[in-house]
Amino acid sequence: MADPGPGGLVTVSDVQQLVRRKDEIEAQIKACYELLEGQKGVGMNEPLVDAQGFPRSDIDVYQVRTARHNIICLQNDHKALMKQVEEALHQLHAREKEKQARDEAEALAEAMRQNQSLAQAFAKVSAVTPGSPASVSGLQVDDEIVEFGSVNINNFQNLQNIATVVQHSEGRPLSVTVIRSGRRVHVGLTPKRWAGKGLLG
């Protein structure tokens, strides 16, 4: 049998080696059968003695015996080899499935990690003045802010960051993402002058 690769794991080249060996054995079996065919077509079971019990003189008895013996041995080898090929393919297939399951689990874990990092809030809405731009946009008290325009958990330092974004976005809609009752909610907020203080309220 082909020796398994490093760590005792069957590789594709091991399987290819086994298949090559199987092809060789099949070629040898075929050659032996052709030899029997050449000996007056005696197969595996025809008698090698004549009616009087003497070795047949029309065939090479020794050659026929050798060919028959080789066929039996080669067929046993072939059977054992086919079993090895089957087991090796089974191992490869099982490993492929295992790898697929591992890849899927890793992708899932990665998605969860990204989700968690996406969903990290850096500020919380403590008050919303009725009639203000914030109120009109649908922002609510206790909304946790995940993204405010270009500001997110990765670049937020202090509330001045938000104030800067608001001043630069007067009259233009800002994309704001909040977590509300455990769900992500997108809000379109347009900072503008109104009856109260500031551009948001």
Automatic annotation (TrEMBL):
Ranges of residues in domain PDZ: 90-182
Domain of life the protein comes from: Eukaryota
Record text on subunit structure and interactions: Interacts with PSMC3. Part of a transient complex (modulator) containing PSMD9, PSMC6 and PSMC3 formed during the assembly of the 26S proteasome.
Native source organism of the sequence: Smithornis capensis
SUPFAM superfamilies per record: PDZ domain-like (SSF50156)
PANTHER family linked to this entry: 26S PROTEASOME NON-ATPASE REGULATORY SUBUNIT 9
Gene Ontology, cellular component aspect: cytoplasm; nucleus
Coiled coil regions in record: 71-115
Keywords attached to this entry: Chaperone, Coiled coil
UniProt-listed GO biological process terms: proteasome regulatory particle assembly
Family: Belongs to the proteasome subunit p27 family.
The protein, known as: 26S proteasome non-ATPase regulatory subunit 9
Function (record text): Acts as a chaperone during the assembly of the 26S proteasome, specifically of the base subcomplex of the PA700/19S regulatory complex (RC). During the base subcomplex assembly is part of an intermediate PSMD9:PSMC6:PSMC3 module, also known as modulator trimer complex; PSMD9 is released during the further base assembly process.
